[in-house]
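The authors assume throughout that readers already know how a fold can be written as discrete tokens. For illustration, here is how one protein appears when written out as sequence plus structure tokens:
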Amino acid sequence: MGFFTDTSVCIGCKACEVACKEWNAIPEDGLSLTGMSYDNTGGLGASTWRHVAFIEQPAPDGRTELPLADGGSGQAERPPAEGEFRWLMSSDVCKHCTHAACLDVCPTGSLFRTEFGTVVVQEDICNGCGYCVPACPYGVIEQRPADGRAFKCTMCYDRLGAGQEPACAKACPTESIQFGPLDELRERAALRVDQLQASGVSDARLYGHDPQDGVGGDGAFFLLLDEPEVYGLPPDPVVTTRDLPTMWKHAGAAALALAGSFALSFALPAMTGRKVRR
């Protein structure tokens, strides 16, 4: 199971942020505007599991009025006026990676893979080591200053167990956040990209949907209208523990070679009848 976030229909209402905090009883973490936009959370963190980004940029040439997700035409199209700006809004969340580095480095088993394919932190088992924080290629997971434990989106694991959808998807008024089986979401997302591009939105693209990417595909992927960097997303994320198996093999081979040379240094004198000087 996973999320597909269609940023082309996000209106920046922050209903997802509020629903996430209310359902998961997440503490308040600051209500100060950044001074750069209407964003008052700044990014994902231990007490912000959903973050709505507001990106202001010059309106591009071409189509500016996007077609609706249901196939409707939306407002009448008009060319952008000189100096006109547009908003790019996107609700960000933990990506629930298929190859999750945070799982690989957790020494207590606090992080685990659920039966839904999502990644969850068991806060009562977390020892606050912080290994998962630098391991995440998206910079999602964070420790709370008060007790040092790590927190992030659980995709409302308790709601999924009761047959309900996550609170953020339930609260989204435009269905920008869609929840369901990943295979179905990927098909739906591909059709939406085709619809946008056929309507003249040439920059429409998917992010995190490919199972062959550096993290094995994300459990939460996005339809973007610009480069990933514009939204604060890494352009080519790679699981940070990807090379660990190879590193351990090299370390093991080196250890065996060292032990073999050490044993050989004692065996050769014995074979030639000479005593080893001490």
User: Anything to note?
Assistant: The CA atoms of residues 244 and 267 lie 34 Å apart. The mean pLDDT is 84. The radius of gyration is 25 Å. The first strand starts at residue 2 and ends at 6.
